[in-house]
Amino acid sequence: MKLKSKTILLSLCLSIAACEAETTLKPTATGIPGQTPATSQSATQTASQSASVAPTAEPSVAPTPAPTLTPTPVPIPMPSPSTTIAPKAYTTIYTIAGTGQEGDPDTDLQASKISFRDVFALTLDSKKNLYVSINNKILRISDEIKIVDATPYRNVSEWVTDVSQPQGLAVDSHDNLYISDTLNHRILKVTTDKKMSVIAGSLSSPGFTGDGSPAINALLNQPAGICFDKAGNLYIADRGNHKIRKIDASTEKISTVAGGAEIGTIISHSYPKSSLPLNPTPSPIEVITEGTLAGFSGDGGAAVNAKLDSPVSVAVDANNNVYLVDANNRIRKIDDKGIITTIAGTGSKGYNSDMADKPATTVHLNLPQALFVSPLDKLLYITDTKNNCIRRINPDGGINTIAGNLRADDGIGDYSPPLNGSIAQPNVLTIDKDGIIYLYDSGHKRIRVLK
Questions:
Q1: Which of 217-226, 275-284, 314-323, 358-367 has the lowest mean pLDDT?
Q2: Most buried among 16, 177, 258, 339, by the most CB within 10 A?
Q3: CA–CA gap between residue 293 and residue 290 (Å, rounded)
Q4: Residue 364 and residue 344 in contact, taking contact as beta carbons nearer than 8 Å
């Protein structure tokens, strides 16, 4: 510290001497276009040392006490806050419900001791209670873990009955449950105190009508996946009509957001109400109607003019982009301007591995059934059902597998790394606010969790 003070003192003295000797010297231009001449101490010192100035003798200066210098803090540049969240890393997979044996679940039992035959949809409420749609009812698996005989378990209760193969579930901001009552061609709302009402569609009457009118007067045809956007609008994968439809939260009117208008004969099926809730489901009644024909077209143009093929799942992100699963082995996106594109899949079924350096549109999918935008990392997750895995579309447009070793019969692999465990034909999934994935492993008859 003493050496530093002496050095500072000597430098100060030299500067004073130079200034006294060259009182008539003015700073010269820097020679750099657009830069003003310097007037600081360092510029004066630079001018005094110029080759055009003759050196002078150092004057005798009486020593003065070293000045007390307070160091000026150097500001440390802070990184600007990032709006991009890194993709979540998943490290384990395990079962929370299901024995692995096929059967119809009993209620009021431990979740790990019930049997499943089919699961058509999953969703979570704000308390992380998990709703599970099966053949003719909706179950609720409590997030509360109880301890009985030193064993933790989740209770299973019957939440809704008198539905037919409900293939879509969603919960609004008030924890009201919405159900695609698929084979009854309607959308139901169930409040937290279990009061049920119909908000769209007509019981056992498939068809396509109602755009621009209240949704309660519209006809649907085998509605499947449903979801809400941040404004509370409800999106419906109107599978039998090959359209995506939307119920406006403020007006309660229904409209079409994707799916063309080419009309042809559609054969669909309905089930008499008197037969429900029998299991197995009774033989369907064939219904022949006029409706939109299935197909694939329209990428790069308006989504309302595009052809879709039996969309089974729909999701919306925070920027109001709409995503759908098209039955022709593609994932398609409708941006906030209404333009549709394909973002994953070639249209050919298969598996040609992940391609980190290529877009997801070069990767084969094999009958994907569900998709969901994670509330945590905002990325799109897909059940690549016949490829026995869960895949994610990354921010750069690439795709990677996050769970499943592609072998359906390679054991369960609970509590192993997700890529080491076997998943057999996962068909539905949902994701909580922490990024935890809940999926139905249909081949192993279990509901499993990725963390």
A1: 275-284
A2: 258
A3: 9
A4: no
Identify the DSSP state of 62.
-
Q: What is the CA radius of gyration of the chain?
A: 34
Distance CA 446, CA 148 (A): 21
**What kind and span of H or E run contains 15?**
helix 2-21
Q: What distance separates the 2 farthest-apart alpha carbons in the chain?
A: 115
Helix 2-21 to helix 41-48 angle, to the nearest 10 degrees?
60
Assess whether the previous peptide bond of 277 is cis (omega < 30° from 0).
yes
pTM of the model: 0.76
Phi first, then psi: give them for residue 266, nearest 5 degrees: -120, 130
Gap between the terminal Cα atoms of the chain: 55
pLDDT tens digits for range 253-307: 999 999 987 666 655 555 444 333 444 455 555 655 566 789 999 999 999 999 9
**List of E strands, 92-176:** 93-97, 121-124, 130-133, 137-148, 151-161, 168-171
**What is the 3-state composition of the chain as percent helix, strand, coil, each rounded to the nearest 5?**
10, 35, 55
- For residue 41, give the H/E element and its range: helix 41-48
Hunting for tokens 């597998």 — which residue is that?
401
Collapsing DSSP states into helix, strand and coil, what is residue 256? Answer: strand
- Both tokens of 278, joined, read 């029998």
* Distance of alpha carbon 451 from alpha carbon 432, whole angstroms: 11
- Describe the strand order of the beta sheet including 254-258 as a list of residue ranges: 223-228, 234-238, 243-247, 254-258
The Cα angle at residue 166 between residues 185 and 314, in degrees rounded to 5: 85
Residue bearing tokens 């997979």: 93
On whether the CB atoms of residues 219 and 234 are closer than 8 A, the answer is: no
Q: Has residue 130 got a pLDDT over 60? A: yes
Sign of CA dihedral 10, 14, 19, 20: positive
**Residue-level pLDDT at 146:** 67
Is-cis flag, bond preceding 280, omega within 30?
Answer: yes
> DSSP assignment of 67-78, as one string?
PP--PPPPPPPP
Residue 25 neighbours by CB under 8 Å, 6+ apart: 47, 48, 53
Return the pLDDT at 244. 98
370-373/254-258 β-pairing:
unpaired
What is the rounded distance in angstroms from the CA atom of residue 27 to the CA atom of residue 46? 9
User: What's CA 364's distance to the chain center, in Å?
Assistant: 21
